[in-house]
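URGENT: need a sanity check before tomorrow's submission.

F., can you look over the Putative 3-methyladenine DNA glycosylase record below? I want to be sure the sequence and structure line up before it goes out.
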Amino acid sequence: MIATPDRTPLPRNFFDRPVLEVAPDLLGRILVRTTSDGPIALRLTEVEAYDGPADPGSHAYRGRTPRNDVMFGPPGHVYVYFTYGMWHCMNLVCGPEGRASAVLLRAGEIVEGAELARTRRLSARNDKELAKGPARLATALDVDRALDGTDACASGETPLRILTGTPVPSDQVRNGPRTGVAGDGGNGDIHPWRYWVANDPTVSPYRAHVPKRRSS
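Structure tokens as predicted:
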């Protein structure tokens, strides 16, 4: 018999750890997005770690800006950024305040509220594709910059919360290079910081960084 996922909210000290500890430990956890139309819950199946000033792939590599301010803490808050002029991506801040580390939520399985997610992801061919990729995940959950800075560990009503769920056994966790990251940040020998659940159909395909071509 499959055990029912634990619905206890994760405490802030879960996130107040090094990013490389938090990232794989997020697999199997449940992210709940509360909307005016009802809740959507997602089981995390793929994430990427970003480690601030020590990481050339991180938005905080060159220091603090208005865009990345939330990354500097406190832990347990949501960092949302806008990319390619059309997509949002969602991260969870971790580590000690001031360190600017965060975990990008890359993919997951919608386990509650799929009917709501489908209305936002009309191009998805099936439910496994609803949150298969970071932009798709944010779109399915109706996450945008208005939720940047949300405290996912707050008590009471909050639009985003992380529950204990069912942690993935270590022998089912895989890791490798991060998707679409340029230079040393995308080198899997240096930063094998993408983590995913082995053989899970909701995990997104790996894609190496492709440099933009300048027009002649």
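My own read: The mean pLDDT is 93. The radius of gyration is 16 Å. If you see anything odd, call me.
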